[in-house]
From TrEMBL:
Protein name stated in the entry: Transposase
Highest taxon of source: Bacteria
Source species of the chain: Alienimonas chondri
Length: 90
């Protein structure tokens, strides 16, 4: 079973989507965002809303979806995490 969990900045769960284990994580993004139980505040230039994702979400489809929902993406690119770890330990 695959669980896609959305948390707020403090780590409190606010959204959840469940699918079969063989489903790619990035394909659950829309369903996870739509699972929010309360309306989300409208993001503004003064109060943008960020979305932090790991390299498993580095797809054009996800970037387009985040733009549609007006999130500011903070997504590691594939290969970037390994490079950061190498630099930290080097």
């Amino acid at each position: 079973m695959k669980r896609s969990l959305l948390t707020e900045g403090g780590g409190v769960p606010i959204g959840l989507a469940i699918a079969g284990a063989n489903r790619n994580d990035f394909k659950l993004v829309r369903e996870t965002l739509e699972s929010l139980p309360i309306p989300r505040p409208e993001p503004t230039d003064e109060a943008p809303q960020g979305m932090c994702l790991n390299k498993g979400y580095d797809y054009r489809e996800v970037r387009a979806l985040l733009a549609e929902y007006r999130f500011t993406p903070h997504t590691r690119c594939r290969g970037e995490e390994a490079e950061a770890i190498k630099q930290e330990s080097g």
